[in-house]
Specification:
Shape: elongated
Radius of gyration: 21 Å
Number of strands: 0
Number of helices: 6
Largest sheet: none
Distance between the termini: 39 Å
Helix content: over 70%
Length: 134
């Protein structure tokens, strides 16, 4: 079972209440490192959700969880857009019916899907889109 934001924030709150001084320090400096290492857009996304949480539930693990949730969400949107582009691509609509361009786009999509470790069901959808292109 994957952790959710509530699991992470409860863990941080527990550590703030019962942790050693160095553990509380770790929560603070890891929070600062994460917020200061993100680009401004991502940092602002984290801070938007942060404002909704009481201070006791904030810390590095919370910032990291929110950051990763935002990144994974963007990856899912990018994957959907990629599959949509493939399903709408027609060889005869490309200049010179450029088969090499089609193959390059298909390879790029496959590399992307492999890099995010998609499920077998998603691979099946990818090949379904591929069949539509060909």
């Amino acid at each position: 079972m994957s952790p959710n934001l509530e699991d992470v924030t409860e863990s941080v709150a527990f550590m703030r209440m019962w942790g050693q001084d160095y553990e509380i320090d770790n929560l603070q400096w890891t929070e600062e490192v994460i917020l200061n290492s993100c680009d401004e857009t991502l940092s602002n996304k984290i801070k938007e959700q942060y404002r909704l949480l009481p201070r006791i539930k904030r810390g590095g693990p919370t910032a990291f969880f929110i950051m990763m949730s935002a990144i994974v969400s963007s990856t899912e949107l990018a994957t959907r857009a990629l599959l949509s582009q493939l399903s709408n691509m027609k060889i005869n609509e490309l200049p010179g019916e450029n088969v090499n361009l089609v193959i390059s786009r298909i390879r790029g999509a496959l590399i992307h899907l492999e890099s995010i470790r998609i499920s077998k069901r998603s691979y099946w959808r990818f090949f379904k889109h591929l069949r539509l292109v060909i």
